[in-house]
Amino acid sequence: MGSPLGPHQARQQQRLSLHTKRAALIGPGDVISYDGHWRTVKEASTAHGPMGGLAVVVTWEEGGTARFPAGDELLLKGADAD
Questions:
Q1: For residue 16, which of 76, 68, 71, 72 has the smallest C-alpha distance?
Q2: Which of the 8 DSSP states describes residue 51?
Q3: How many CB atoms sit inside 10 A of residue 59's CB?
Q4: Percentage of the chain with pLDDT > 70?
Q5: How far apart are CA 73 and CA 16, in angstroms?
Q6: Can you tell me whether residue 28 is helix, strand or coil?
Q7: Cα–Cα distance list, 62 to 10, 16, 22, 39, 75 (Å)
Q8: 44, 31 contact by CB (below 8 A)
Q9: Per-residue pLDDT reduced to its tens digit, 30-70
Q10: Phi then psi for 14, rounded to 5 degrees?
Q11: pTM of the predicted model, to two decimals?
């Protein structure tokens, strides 16, 4: 093993093929990962969060709703993903 203070190999940068979008920007038809499943946004509206900040309330086509802080990054399913 080399010295912890000596030179080290640079880590290889790998571009992730994951797409994200801020919660405040999602809209009907977006497919996002939530609670371990891919769900389709039926409707998105704004509301006050529990601490008074801006929140986004999402209604799923699969049923149910969820609330996200407006600045949260949500994982989108790409057009070529299965």
A1: 76
A2: T
A3: 15
A4: 74
A5: 15
A6: coil
A7: 45, 28, 21, 7, 17
A8: no
A9: 999 998 999 999 999 999 988 889 999 999 999 999 999 99
A10: -120, 125
A11: 0.70
How far apart (Å, rounded) are the C-alpha atoms in residues 57 and 60? 10
User: How far is 75 from 32, CA to CA, in rounded Å?
Assistant: 5
Of 8 and 54, the structure prediction assigns the larger pLDDT to: 54
33 φ, ψ (degrees, to nearest 5): -85, 130
Question: For residues 35 and 38, what is the distance between their CA atoms, to the nearest angstrom?
Answer: 8
| pLDDT at residue 3 greater than cutoff 70 | no
Extract the tokens encoding 7: 């030179």
* DSSP SS3 for 7: coil
